[in-house]
Amino acid sequence: MKHLLKSTIQTAILAPAFCAMPLAYAADEVGEKASPHTLTANIGFFSDYTYRGISYTREHGSIQGGFDYTHSSGFYAGIWATNVDNGAMYGNTVEKDLYGGYVQSLNDDLSLSVGFMQYFYPHGKHAGHGTINRGDSANTTELNAALNYKNFTLKHSYAVTNFFGINNNYGGNGNSRGSGYTELNFNGKLPVADLNLLLHVGRQTVHNYSQANYTDWLIGVNKDFSIAGSTGWNAGVNYTTTDADDSWYVDAKGWETGNERFIGYIKRTF
């Protein structure tokens, strides 16, 4: 049950890029009782920051990192940050995420998790920045729930605020609260070279803005390793693509953000 809880907490807060927010858990007991509290830090270097298949750094690279707290009861919380391209999110150049939740194991193979995710853009620039049609703040709050079975996770996220600043002033269709993202993920071991395999499909719907709905897919492989006795390293590559409308998912510089791409990365958890 302990190992199940570890994996399901990790799965409950998988980053949008599926490689950005690793979450450690208390070590197994060795000679004495392990602490119920675990605090870890992580940092990584990525060829792109991709959120649900959409590029936020125009494939120019990103530095991502954060801190995670977990408790043996199943509660978790954390903070994470990355750079973003100023043309991708209304002139903002930094994203900070706060998250937390609870994982309940139902049996040795099945668990349920609930949580929240707060996306925060500290520069405070709004949708439509620099245009007449000015939208809401890009800051977005989502609630989420997930069912985890062995290596599979089915998760739904629901926006309780306007979705990344989209409101009536921005597009004329009304507010975007109630937007949702449903995803199915597989994360398991390959029988070769001790590689990990990641498979993902997700469907984003934007309330009142059906032209912004799309599906994204991802396949990735990665490997855990150590360097000169230094553990906690992981490196890999993901391939992702979407069927997003290029007339909607284009940044302020005219770059189509939903196109296919490979993402390489290396990261470490402390």
Q: What descriptors fit this protein?
A:
mainly beta, disordered N terminus, 12-stranded antiparallel beta barrel, globular, 270 residues, two-stranded antiparallel ribbon, Porin
Strand count, sense and barrel status of the largest sheet are: 12 strands, antiparallel, barrel
Q: What string, H for helix and E for strand, traces the elements in order?
A: HEEEEEEEEEHEEEEE
Q: Provide the gyration radius in Å.
A: 19 Å
- Tally of helical runs: 2
Helix content: under 10%
Assembly annotation: single chain
Number of domains: 1
Low-confidence parts, pLDDT < 50 over ≥5 residues?
1-8, 19-30
* Annotated CATH architecture: Beta Barrel
Distance between the termini: 24 Å
According to CATH, the fold-level topology is: Porin
Q: Can you walk through the features of this model?
A:
The protein is mainly β and 270 residues long. The protein has one domain: Porin, CATH 2.40.160.40. 6% of the residues lie in helices and 48% in strands. The chain has helices spanning 2-12, 168-171; strands spanning 37-46, 50-51, 54-55, 62-71, 75-83, 94-105, 110-120, 140-149, 152-159, 180-189, 196-205, 214-227, 230-242, 261-269. The strands form 2 sheets. A 12-stranded antiparallel barrel has the order 1-4-5-6-7-8-9-10-11-12-13-14. A two-stranded antiparallel ribbon has the order 2-3. Mean pLDDT is 87; it is low at 1-8 and 19-30.
